[in-house]
Amino acid sequence: MKLTAQRAQRLVAAAAAARKHAHAPYSKFRIGAALLASSGRIYTGVNVENASYGLTICAERVAAGNAVSAGERRFAAVAIVSPGAAMPCGACRQVLAEFGDCTVICADARRLGQMSVEPLSGLLPHMFRI
Ligand code: THU
Prior knowledge:
29% helix, binds tetrahydrodeoxyuridine
């Protein structure tokens, strides 16, 4: 699955649309994620916060769970939309890396065109493996 500019744009749009459903009443930091699987399908996720703060789940991991539960195992790219185009946390990098390298697109929620694009392997060198 080649990540064309059009596919990247669609992925960012899917993450931005999903972000509307983020449950972030505590941090108010809303994040939407969209994964492009090798099948060509897109799976989304949002951050799901909890009153017991530590139970919060990141948007990327929700998207990965959605994709894996649909039978997907390979991802071409993930788009993450948040204020200021935040990068994925270390835990999410490790979870995504479980399924191989992919392109990570981080876009600013207020200006979707403002984005960084880099390989996951560059963001997580020496991932944990057993
Ligand atoms: N968050 C994500 O959804 N993804 C990340 O990679 C890092 C942080 C969420 C968790 C929490 O709901 C909010 O951002 C602020 O930390």
